[in-house]
Amino acid sequence: MLIRKNTKAFKTILEIISTCQHRGDREKLIRLYIAKAGHTVLDRIAVEGMGDAALFYEMNYQTVLNSLRSSNHQLHVSDEIPGVYFFRSNSNKAWDETPFEFDEAIKKELSALPELPVLRKKEKLQKSVIQIGKSKAASTGKKEKAELKKSAITIPEKGPRQPNYKLRHKIHFSDLDKIIFRQPQGTRQDILDYYNKIAEYILPYLKDRPLFIRSQLGKGQPPIELSVEGLFKDNPGQLPEWVQSTTLSVAGEKRKMLLCNDKEHLLFYVGMGCLEFSPCHSRIKSVHSPDYLVLVIDSPDEEGAKLTEVAAATGDILKGLQLPSFLKTDGMSGLHAYVPLDSKSTFETSRMVAEYICKLVALKIPDRVSLKGIDGYIYGRVLLDASVNMEGANVVAPYSLVADDAATVATPLCWDEPKMSATVGSGAETWLELKEKIFKRIKQAGDPFKALFKKKQSADSLLDRLEKNYAFLFP
């Protein structure tokens, strides 16, 4: 029976498939099958019983979703097997494509939707696997039953255990098998394990700082930035008493911002769905005075070689000014260069210092650089940006994951890091590849950012020196 696209039944099925796309337990809610060309749903093969089941499930799930959105495919429900849905394309009405069915658990999960589809109990795998080559329903003879039972594969179901992170506060982590990143695949459990292991190295850059945290909404959607109200607006009771926060003025508006001073806070936020941690440039005890300035070196056109060249020139300028500096990727297409400050100057002063440094870099390699706020965007040039040095502004922390479709890490680098361009831009390594290198390097050489808060500079003195020696270059 055909289910037309403008009906509530069709819209509900589309809503269910779309909603469950990024759920780690979707295999329990939506079961997928394969039908050989020329065959009907009676001759379907359960995806879960195949050799690389995860890959086949992912491919078929995307096919189902694309077919629901396509104008060339029509959705049907089987007359012979109520609850089994399938497609027929406009060019082929002779056989059934990508059969699927919904488990009864859908009724509990999404009961608010109108006209829920026909739901089916989960059968033993051998009952739902029909051998290819049959064009009619499988025989109920003893021989056929015996052969079918012999060839069936049973997939045991076992829920994930609570991880033991040795925390001072009891935290119950849910949806541990939820898939957060798909290429390469990473579950919430994987993300928690990473942050548990990297906690001692990322926490120094988060401690006592108003924190912007970001969660990933899904493929093609921008991450959402969360404050206390944003993270717990649906259920304020989820906020434990021990979670710390502070109030910060952002763009003239007071916001209650989260703090992350220990591993308990870090993993609690990750368990709530947060991926990216971006601290402000000042601590709560001196919120109006930054303790570092940041130079953003970005390549909108993802030209790694030019980015590397501009980064090297920036390093040369900072070294020539005898300024301690630290470099990391932003986890996407650019780099961040940090200069530590003594927390005794204003944000306005630090921004002016950063602008002077950017101008000196542009003077050194003018055909490679454009300055944000001065030159605007120039195709083929690397963008230098000093505007992030404002009160309430933030950049992603060293070692933080980035809330983007491509799973990456904001990775600390050495200024003389070989093949830097392979770490950023179009050749960005994923967090699965980077995390092993990160832990290996920390073990061998330590944290490249370790001295960030030790070699402090006075932004006021720096600005006086820059104006005295270089102001004549920039009339």
Plain-language structure description:
There is one protein chain. This protein has 475 residues and is α+β, with helices and mostly antiparallel strands. The strands form 5 sheets. Strands 1, 2, 3, 4, 5, 6 and 7 form a 7-stranded mixed beta sheet that branches. Helices cover 30% and strands 20% of the residues. It has 13 helices and 20 strands.
Summarize the structure.
The protein has 13 helices and 20 strands. By secondary structure, the chain is α+β, with helices and mostly antiparallel strands.
Mean pLDDT: 81
Distance between the termini: 77 Å
What is the number of beta strands? 20
Q: Using the alpha-carbon principal axes, give the shape.
A: elongated
Instruction: List segments where confidence is low: pLDDT < 50 over at least 5 consecutive residues.
Output: 125-159, 418-428
Structural category is alpha+beta
- Please, how many helices? 13
Strand content: 15-25%
The helix content, as a percent range, equals 25-40%
Strand count, sense and closure of the main sheet?
7 strands, mixed
